Every structure is written in C-alpha cells, then in structure tokens.
Amino acid sequence: MIRDALPGDWPAIWPIFEEIVRAGDTYAYPADTDKHTAEALWMTKPDRTFVFESDGNILGTYYLKTNQEGPGKHVCNCGYMVSSAARGMGIARQMCEHSQGISVAMGFNAMQFNFVASSNDVAVALWKKLGFDVVGTLPRAFNHPTLGLVDAFVMYKWLTD
Questions:
Q1: Contact between residue 81 and residue 45 where contact means Cβ atoms under 8 Å apart
Q2: What is the DSSP string of 37-82?
C-alpha cells in the first residue's frame, strides 16, 4: 500500500534514508546528513511525501515536489528510496507509477529527475522502462565512492497529452 507519509512515520523512514545516503552511491546528499536535516529534506521541503507499507512495515518512500517555481512549476521532481531488504520486489516501480498519477492529479504536466547517477544501472533502466528519457548528461558530475567521477543524467517524462 502506498499512502501519504505521516509525521509519525519518520522513525521508520530514517533508517532507509540513512542507509542509502551513507552509501553515497545514488543520492547527492552529504553522506553524513544528520537525522534532523534529513527529516527536513524528506518530510518538510517536498510538497508531499509517501510511504510504501506492507504488513505494517515501511519498505520504501518517495517525495514529490515542484521542480522549479514560476514558469517551470508545471514540472515536478521526485526521489525514491527502498530499503535494501526490500529491493528487487518492484517497490520502486510501484512508487514511480503511483507518483506519476499523483503528479497529474496535483496539476503537474511533466516529471524530471535532476541528478541520476549514471552508475545506478538499476534505476536508470527502470526509469527508461517507465518512459523517461535521458535529456541531458552532466559529465563527471557525481563523485561515486568507489568508481570516482561518473556522469549524472537529467531524465524527463511528459505526463499529459
């Protein structure tokens, strides 16, 4: 089940956020992002935050926010995180599909991922399967902890016709 995140969900979201950000291989947040800062980034700054819950356990989460204000406010941005224990179960796919429907319902026409590490093969392949195009490549923009400098992609999908 995917539902809006509640303030009381943060203690269950934090371990997912912490694990992914500490790894430093997919998100451009500082690896030492503290719990308070992380909560603001994930729960307060976005327009909405969601959780993927199964049997009372939060296995994944995503945020949805306006990518740019003013003339760009019809484009949203999302970020997705899945617990390492739940990867490979299709949760990211379900959350991305859900986010597209929610985005249109909120009045957005398009979705943009601003900074996808090119080395994140699983995410890049999934976003492409779900209709996102790589519309820009930022050469050596992501400093991967083991691979060094790798490209980052800007990925985009028009959601309405």
A1: no
A2: HHHIIIIISSSEEEEEEETTEEEEEEEEEESSSGGGTTEEEEEEEE
pTM above 0.85? yes
Strand residue runs (E) in the chain: 2-4, 48-54, 57-66, 75-82, 110-117, 133-144, 148-158
pLDDT tens figures, 96-154:
999 999 999 999 999 999 999 999 999 999 999 999 999 999 999 999 999 999 999 99
- The CATH architecture that domain 2-112 belongs to is 3-Layer(aba) Sandwich (3.40)
Q: Write the pLDDT tens digit of every residue in 53-87.
A: 999 999 999 999 999 999 999 999 999 999 999 99
Domain ranges of the chain: 2-112
